[in-house]
Every structure is written in C-alpha cells, then in structure tokens.
Specification:
The chain starts with a strand and ends with a helix. It has eight helices and 19 strands. With about 425 residues, the protein is α/β, with parallel strands linked by helices. It has two domains: about 170 residues, Sandwich (Immunoglobulin-like); about 230 residues, Aminopeptidase, CATH 3.40.630.40.
C-alpha cells in the first residue's frame, strides 16, 4: 500500500553526511535556479536528482509545517543548530525552480526561513526559530493526481533542555558519521513499541452496514462498502505503528444500531472513537473531506441535513447515573462533556492538519454537527466524512485503493500527533 516514507533524522543525517562529507555544515552558498523541471546527472553513472519545485512554511505558536514540492522523492537530513536556534533540512537536489524563498505564512514557532543551494547537488532549508522547537514528524508523500512528490516537516514546541539535547545528539551523529561509525537506527517518527497496557485503544466505526447501505455513488457503490474498506486500511496502519490497540465496531457487512456503536466504545473504555462516513448532497460540486465533532448547533444547513440523516432512529442516550443528587450528576456530566468536546476538537484538528497535504478538504474542514455517534460523554469522538459520493471526483477517489491508503496514512499520522500532544501535556503537568 503506498504510504509516506518516514525518515529517522539521526540515521538519515549520518547516511547523508557519509555521502556528501562535512560540507553539510558548510555556509550556504546561493546558486542559480534551474529552469522548469530540470534534473541533473552526477556523472555518467551517478544518481539523477530532482529539482525543488516550490516550498512553503506556515507557523502558529503551537506548530509549524514546511512543505517541499519535488519532481520525485530524494534523500534528506535534519539537524538542529544553536546560537541562534535553527533547524536545517538538507536534501539532495539538482536545483531550485524559484529565485527567492516565499514569505512565512502566520507567526509563531518559526521566525525566519530561507532555502538555497548550499552546493551543487544539495539544497538547504534553514528554519530560524522564535522559540525552541523539535521535529514532530518528517515524511514523503508520493506524487498523486496533479500533485508533485512532497516532503512534509512538522515542528512542535520543545523546552530549552529538549532542544539543547537534540543539538548535542545531532552533533554527535555528525562526528560519528565523519569517522564512519555505524549509528543504530532509532525508531521512525510515529512508530514505537509500547507495552500493550500503555497503548491507547482506538475504536473505528465504519458507518452503516447490512440493510443500511448509506449513500450511493453513481456507479452503484454503497457508502457501507467504502467505509468498511477504509476502516480496515486505517486499522492496518495504526496497528503496524506499534502504538495503538485498534478495534472495529463491525468487520463485515452487518447492521449495527447507533447506540450499540457508541456502547461498544464505552464498554471497552476507548481512548478515541472515529466514525467513518462518505455522504452525498444535492449539490454535486460540493466535495472534500471534513472532520466533525459534536455540537448541538450545526455549522450550516448542509451539516444539519447530514446529522439528521444519521439520527432518523428514535434513540435515547441512556447514560446510567450514579446514586447521587441529580444536580451534582448534571454538573459532573456537563464538565465531562465539556472536557471531551475539547479533546475531540484537538484530535480533529490534528487529523485535519495531517490530511491537508494529502487529500482535498472542504472549506473549514473542522466542523460541528449533532451526530448521535458523537454523543459519548467520556470518549473523545469524531466523525470523518471522507468525501461526497455525489461528486464525480470524490466518488472516483473513494473507490481507489491508492487514495484510501494515502488517506489512511494521513489519518494515522493525525491520531499519533494527537496522542503525542496529550502525552506532552501530561508530562509537563507532572
């Protein structure tokens, strides 16, 4: 299944330094940009290198992202530098298809940015930090549709001590590489081997099933088939990471009541509930993925229609209350719901952030609607609309294994980012 190529910063840095020598830390020297889609060959038997088509950096105080568009994938290395705090990204490339680095979008972690050709065959992007930061994940996206190959680098805040340690580790790695010392490959970003008792449980809910086929595409494919196929792919990716236990509310074409879907997640004390859907609407031009969290007030008319479609059955929430004063129970439930809605929103944001470079998104992709499956008061919950079967482009994507695999990889990265953020907050509070 096509997916992101995860690179370990330390191991990749060592490999690249061995290939190009200590010049990886030489001062950056500008080089004329190469025209259009030019690539060069290093000697008659040397490797063919891609051109850097475009680059963009966006930042907020909570995270930053650099996206590099290339003709095709290449090798890259990451290194943290101090005085001042910077993160450098070196990649093997023929040249740049632009003469000036674009301005940064937003303000926050990254104060300044520049990308130049440091020497023939090596481009360097330099992110000057406003506050200490660390690379959360770095991965390649394969070219798809009319999109080029992309290198995506995500940054998150770090403490001064964490940044200083990364600088020291990177320096040690470069010295070891120059001396030809083998460096053990650390675990790739987003992948760990946590003991089973510490793994979060993610419950994936493939929407519809059995007699309830859901929406139907122009070629007759039903929503229930698409949601199950995608849920199985997402389960596979999450389990392969070694970070999560994963359960599905249904694993075949069976009908399951809405309250049973929520009940399964609650009974098993899930840490995250993800319901998968692919709906339709009377306006065929509406397309793109979105992620919903629960709110009594729908975002717009379309969201209300979608929510009502899921809530046709007359259901009662049915949460058992402990034996205590009703007013106290109401307060506790309200506080729990507020907390879960906040967590749900943070998880939805993380997944949308991961989806952004990979798939078409709706405008304002984090949305709210009163879907019943999002009503659990004790589990962060979201509903992912993969796209619209009523739109020709979305309908084609939704049935393609390559698109499903790419999107499942992105959702899995978002899930990992959410739990990483939660773990960091827990550590900081202790």
């Amino acid at each position: 299944m096509p997916g992101p190529v995860l690179k370990s910063p330390i191991a990749t840095l060592a490999a690249l330094l061995l290939m190009i020598g200590t010049s990886a830390f030489a001062p950056s020297l500008a080089q004329d940009a190469v025209p259009d889609t030019a690539v060069i060959e290093e000697g008659t038997a040397g490797p063919v290198l891609p051109a850097v088509i475009a680059v963009r950096v966006s930042t907020t105080p909570e995270r930053a992202r650099m996206v590099v568009d290339l003709n095709f994938q290449t090798e890259f290395a990451l290194v943290s530098l101090d005085n001042p705090g910077r993160i450098a990204i070196d990649l093997k490339a023929a040249g740049l298809m632009f003469t000036e680095s674009p301005p940064i979008s937003g303000s926050g972690l990254v104060a300044a940015f520049d990308m130049v050709m440091a020497e023939p065959g090596r481009a360097r992007a330099l992110l000057t930090l406003a506050t200490p930061a660390q690379v959360q994940q770095a991965y390649f996206l394969e070219a798809f549709d009319d999109q080029p190959a992309r290198l995506v680098i995500d940054l998150i805040p770090a403490t001064h001590d964490e940044f200083a340690k990364r600088v020291a580790d990177d320096l040690a790695a470069s010295e070891a590489a120059k001396q030809g010392v083998a460096i053990a490959e650390p675990t790739a970003p987003g992948v760990t081997n946590l003991p089973p008792e510490t793994r979060p449980l993610v419950v994936i809910d493939p929407g519809h099933g059995g007699v309830d086929g859901g929406a139907e595409g122009p070629n007759g494919v039903e929503e229930k088939t698409i949601t199950l196929a995608f849920a199985l792919k997402l389960q596979e990716v999450l389990i392969a990471s070694g970070r999560f236990d994963v359960a599905l509310t249904r694993e075949d074409d069976s009908f399951l009541k809405l309250e049973d879907r929520v009940g399964l997640a609650r009974e098993n004390k899930a840490d995250l509930f993800i319901s998968i859907h692919a709906d339709s609407f009377q306006q065929p031009d509406i397309r793109g993925a979105s992620v919903y969290t629960r709110d009594e007030n729908a975002t717009d008319v379309l969201d209300k229609v979608l929510a009502d479609e899921e809530n046709k059955v007359d259901l009662v929430a049915g949460f058992a209350a402990p034996d205590m004063d009703a007013a106290v129970v109401d307060i506790l439930v309200d506080l729990m719901q507020r907390s879960m809605r906040k967590q749900s929103f943070l998880a939805a944001e993380a997944i949308v952030h991961a989806l952004e470079p990979s798939v078409e998104l709706r405008k304002f992709p984090v949305r709210q609607a009163d879907f019943f499956v999002l009503q659990a008061p004790d589990i962060p919950s979201m509903l992912i609309e993969l796209g619209f079967l009523s739109n020709t482009d979305d309908a084609l994507n939704l049935t393609q294994g390559e698109w499903q695999g790419r999107t499942a990889d992105a959702v899995a990265r978002g899930v990992a980012a959410y739990f990483d953020a939660e773990a960091a907050l827990l550590t900081a509070s202790q």
